[in-house]
Amino acid sequence: MNTAKMNQQQNIKSRKDLENSKEADVISDEDKDAHDSRDLSLPHSNSNSAMREGGGVEKDEEYFKKLQEQKEIEDIKRNSTDLWFTKLLVKRTWWVIISSVVFAFLCASLTIAFGGFTMSADHDRTFLVWSAKQVKEWDMLELASEKVQTNYPNGVQPLRTTVMRKWATSITYDCEGCDNIITADFAKNMYYIEQQIVNDPNYVNFCKAVSSADSSCATDAYTSFAKNFAGSIDTITQTDVDNYLATIAGSQTIYENNYLFFEESFTRTNLVSKKARAIFVFASPIEYEGTRYKTYKDEEFDQVVDFLEFSNDVEDKVTSYDSSLEVKFYNEVWFDNQVDLQITKDFALAIGSFIFVTIYIAFHIKSIFLSCTAMFSIAISFPVTLLFTRLILQVDFFSSLNLSSIFVILGISADNVFVLVDTWRQTEQHKLLNPDTKNKMNNLQIRMNYTWRSAGKAILTTDLTTAIAFLATGFSKIMPVAAFGYFASFLVFINF
To answer: What pTM was computed for the model?
Structure first.
């Protein structure tokens, strides 16, 4: 009996020793999944036995290190499979560069041929929502007006009988910190400034005509507060001004004829203003430098150019006139031209940004050639995008808003270059990506494959989300915003 009991205890001890021995050995392939679910530091249920066995923790760490290496090897094998374009980049580098230059030249030539770089002309309806009720009513009124005003004998409209809304000009005065601009001295200064326009030789070519039969300048072609004292402006006194203000206070009609010349706070009970203005009304068709336009729609662009020339001339006169007033000139034609000039200056800043990014990329990746190549890819994306949006998408509108996308694409492209180059440099340190010690060209192919597959995923994700965000603006009902959305979206996609 004692012998049997001793044998039973011996068998139990042997089984426990065998289990502990199996626990300490490297886990077999069949047990990997079960082992992966355990705590990486130490198995909870067998912590004491592992400590007693000595080296259990070390063997766990060794196993997970081998497992991590195995996963890394599998990842490298998966991401280093051949790609057709990486093979071209490595083995036909100059062929790719020359082909890209030829392609860029071809796209740029086609874009120029189809007028892709031509800016769309500004129009009253450019930033309007065409489906809006108010816009439709305005369009009907414009069409009716055009029909009536172009129905003339022999198709010739009397000179300057159609008032041009965008030509309406205002001269704004500010007395720079004064409490009230409505004084005799300021009125005299304002009148002399306004006469710089009235006395201009070309004023009679643009001022609103009296009637169809009389092409001289109408009385209401120019109105201002100072004009009320035209007959006695040289001898005007503060008493004269105060007396006229008293008539304004006593008559609603006189007030309505003058309140537009001052600030909103100017009322019949508060006859004080810190600012004032004069209003000039101009009309079409015009006769300018020997050219007589038949109607206000005849050669409309040329008439606008002529008026702009006149506006630039008188703007220089009124703003440079020596007085104690701060003078500002405004009409829509002149203002739009100033915006265009500012955009041209800003485009020079874009060129500066382009140069700065080129230098910064060259400094970061330590390669002038790669930096110039990256900038070339940005430059080529513009004509390609213009060609795609205009010929395929049929989005003909191209405004200054589209040009602002150059700043967006510079930042995106620079980030893409940094990601690619940093990933490429990391592959240089990895032995598994450089297996061929004799033929380094084979290693370049493997590294290029790995770089494109690894970094390409991150770049694609960021570029795709950006492109979709821009594409969302393409659904805007405001045409310039929608056109910018389509252009910027495909610019990012094509640049990728």
So the answer is: 0.62
